[in-house]
Design brief:
By secondary structure, the protein is α/β, with parallel strands linked by helices.
Length: about 425
């Protein structure tokens, strides 16, 4: 039976319980489908002798003592990337060590890496995931929801123990540790917002400047509406609809038929934003983005193809997803900037990288030297008298015979 933590005294008691724990299983529940911006609604914690659910939405509840101790204790998580990003965004939380059970299952070549499938495979436990889309920000929480939530952390410790044993047997434990460290770094690094790029949707590369101006105005309008109404972005306006409205409005066509069934006030605000964007002078319209990188040279293209083939071959030998060794974005980064390649040491070694003077050197694609074809020499042939191009003898015109020299016969003198 899990304990619901919603008072400050309970937080301190929980901190004392988990201080000496060798591992703490952690999971979160958020309200991304029902609110904007999303928030951590529950924090589930499990140790060998403690199961607790912290209600993070209680006003005045100070989570700092709990998060401070969780930073120092190794954590077990499943699919940790989402939880780590959420905790860093809300509390600047960054753990020192994480064991991701989903990542371990992928390295072991498991066909299904969801928590329910892994619990069924490794422990014979059947988890019912019918409350995945529940509104976790709604209060009060039923006992059924609380029982469902704690199971996401309750089984992680035993699952970790069994997955870790297989990682050791397959000599992949160090690979997992390196990938988890990279995961922590990627998910807890501040992301700088770029006002020139943040509003650009996929497919807007071909938009005119007027269409880009409308798209930018709609993007910021949607942000304001989502925050003020505390509703998700997709509830306000879908991205594909936003792009289509920008295209039609920029071309002077009817776009109002695409506007969802808003209240009169929201509809009026949206129409005002579009009209203001249409009146912007040219100098204030956004410019199309230039390519961040130049196109690959023939040598770089061969290098990328070589690394991709090498990665796929190694993945087949290791019986794992090729993207675990390196995604295409990783391979492109290796070709462009070899010194700052975003791969772990085991991934580089698997791909055949070599270390020289403390730097990793990307393996070069083998150079295939094409032998020039030797031109077949034709037998010597006298030039045609007719001077024909193909060398064939043309019918010759009759050649006038040379005049026969007339021999003068001296006649004998008549006697």
């Amino acid at each position: 039976m899990s304990e619901l933590i919603n008072q400050q005294e309970q937080i301190q008691e929980l901190v004392n319980k988990i201080k000496s724990a060798p591992w703490v299983s952690v999971d979160t529940e958020a309200n991304s489908m029902y609110a904007y911006p999303e928030r951590v609604c529950l924090l589930q914690l499990s140790t060998e002798d403690t199961d607790a659910i912290v209600d993070t939405l209680v006003k005045g509840l100070d989570l700092k003592p709990l998060l401070d101790v969780l930073r120092k204790v190794p954590l077990i998580m499943h699919g940790a990337d989402y939880d780590l990003r959420l905790l860093y965004k809300g509390y600047k939380f960054r753990p020192q060590e994480v064991f991701d059970t989903m990542l371990a299952a992928k390295l072991l070549g498991e066909p299904s890496c969801g928590l329910a499938q892994l619990c069924e495979t490794y422990m014979g436990v059947h988890l019912v995931k019918k409350h995945q889309k529940a509104d976790w920000g709604k209060r009060p929480l039923t006992q059924e929801l609380l029982s469902y939530a704690i199971k996401d952390s309750f089984y992680l410790c035993e699952l970790k123990r069994r997955l870790e044993k297989r990682l050791i047997e397959s000599d992949k434990l160090e690979w997992h540790r390196q990938n988890c460290q990279r995961l922590i770094k990627d998910c807890t690094t501040p992301v700088k917002t770029d006002p020139v790029r943040e509003w650009r949707l996929g497919g807007s590369e071909t938009f005119s400047r007027k269409e880009l101006g409308i798209l930018r105005a709609l993007w910021y309008w949607r942000e304001e509406e989502a925050v003020s109404s505390n509703r998700p972005l997709f509830f306000i306006l879908r991205p594909d609809t936003m792009s289509l409205i920008a295209k039609l409005a920029g071309a002077g066509k009817d776009y109002k038929r695409l506007i969802p069934r808003y209240s009169p006030e929201r509809r009026a605000r949206m129409l005002k934003v579009i009209e203001e964007a249409l009146k912007l002078p040219v100098r204030k319209l956004p410019m199309p983005l230039r390519r961040e990188y130049s196109r690959f040279s023939p040598f770089q293209q061969r290098q990328l193809e070589f690394l991709t083939q090498l990665r796929d071959q190694k993945a087949q030998e290791l019986d794992m997803d090729p993207t675990l060794i390196a995604s295409r974005a990783d391979l492109v980064g290796c070709v462009r900037e070899a010194d700052t390649c975003h791969l772990t040491d085991w991934q580089k070694s698997t791909l055949g990288f070599e270390q020289q003077d403390g730097k990793w050197i990307v393996p070069s694609a083998p150079v295939h030297i094409r032998q020039k074809k030797q031109r077949k020499r034709r037998p010597f042939r006298k030039p045609s008298r007719s001077g024909s191009k193909n060398g064939a003898l043309a019918p010759s015109a009759p050649v006038p015979s040379a005049p026969v020299p007339v021999q003068r016969v001296e006649s004998a003198p008549v006697k």
